[in-house]
Design goal:
With 328 residues, the chain is an alpha+beta fold. Helices cover 47% and strands 13% of the residues. The chain contains 14 helices and 9 strands. The strands form 2 sheets. A 6-stranded mixed sheet has the order 6-5-4-7-8-9, with helices on both faces. Strand 7 and strand 8 form a beta hairpin.
């Protein structure tokens, strides 16, 4: 994938009198990428998004300088593993002095460029909204939930259960309670996960810039009895209600169709620049999250195939009402 944040920092374009001026002092009429605009966008986002944006730029700068991770950290007082996690957006650099030393090593001397990165770094260290739930999350989920809140669009496939952002509180609680004796989880674990799931639904119902959500549900996921008939009828009504929102599209893939179905659930998330798209999928015991171009492309292909074969969005409400009648 082409690097969307391709402009070298030392060629940072500032705006003066409506023109972009590079460090040469000559005005440029062409529309070049503005690093400052990207950092301003990132600063409006959550801490995980900011860490991701900062890590991507640090990796680009290191590679442009021709340095390996080992060479970049040599003598700076922190490990290769630490820098690798920073570049991936998994962790931040807690000490601003560490980032200052790294920018020196990478040859970032422009005052405005350094200030933009230092501001992004400072904002990335703020508390994530999901922090109170971190202990109840499987591996990989904190990263995903942190990024999910800043996604512009999500495309998801769910073959086994109603997709999480569409679930009612009763359905979510029943789902976790079914697993409780087998997984040996606690009541607090169930309560925290239900609360987190309900809070995450705000992504599609918030008034300001709601998430654009496109979901394909397998019919089997809707027929699986969770919590009993009353819970299921309430859940069908909720899916139909949410599907009426302008930013939500729900399609159903009927069991009678002989067609491709992905074996595992997944979600592909798109973001505003500079953060690249990611794909998330559940694997027993962990949450897989990757931004590898090939993986994102493959999952987009899978979603596109199932979306094209599924019933149109206008058929969703009728299908759900029929399912509700069948369990009366």
């Amino acid at each position: 994938m082409q690097d969307k944040w391709h402009m070298p920092l030392h060629r940072h374009a500032l705006r003066r009198g409506g023109q972009r001026v590079g460090d040469s002092g000559h005005a440029h009429a062409e529309d070049t990428h503005d690093f400052e605009e990207d950092t301003q966008v990132a600063a409006k986002r959550g801490p995980t998004y900011r860490r991701r944006a900062l890590g991507k730029e640090l990796r680009r700068l290191r590679e442009k300088a021709g340095l390996t991770i080992q060479q970049a950290v040599s003598g700076l007082g922190f490990s290769e593993t630490k820098l690798n996690k920073v570049e991936l957006g998994h962790n931040g650099l807690p000490l601003v002095g560490d980032l200052e030393k790294l920018l020196d090593r990478l040859g970032v001397t422009d005052v405005d460029d350094r200030e933009a990165l230092l501001t992004l770094h400072r904002d990335s260290l703020s508390r994530d909204p999901y922090t109170p739930y971190r202990d109840t999350m499987p591996s990989g989920m904190p990263l995903y939930v942190g990024l999910e809140s800043d996604a512009r669009e999500m495309r998801a496939w769910q073959p086994s259960y109603v997709f999480g952002l569409l679930q009612t509180e009763s359905y979510a609680r029943a789902q976790f309670m079914l697993a409780k004796p087998v997984e040996e989880t606690t009541t607090a674990f169930v309560q925290n996960n239900v609360r987190l799931r309900m809070e995450r639904k705000h992504l599609i119902t918030r008034a300001d810039n709601p998430l654009l959500l496109r979901v394909v549900l397998d019919e089997s996921a809707l027929r699986r009895m969770i919590g009993g008939p009353d819970v299921m009828r309430e859940q069908y009504d909720e899916v139909a209600r949410l599907a009426e929102l302008d930013n939500v599209t729900v399609q159903i893939l009927p069991n009678r169709l002989v067609t491709y179905r992905a074996d595992i659930n997944f979600a592909v998330l798109d973001f505003d620049s500079p953060v690249d798209p990611i794909v998330q999928s559940d694997i027993p015991g962990t949450i897989m999250v990757t931004d590898k171009t090939d993986d994102v492309w493959k999952f987009n292909q899978r979603f596109g195939r199932m979306r094209d074969e599924a019933l149109g969005p206008s058929a969703t409400a009728g299908f759900l009402h029929q399912l509700a009648r069948e369990i009366d």
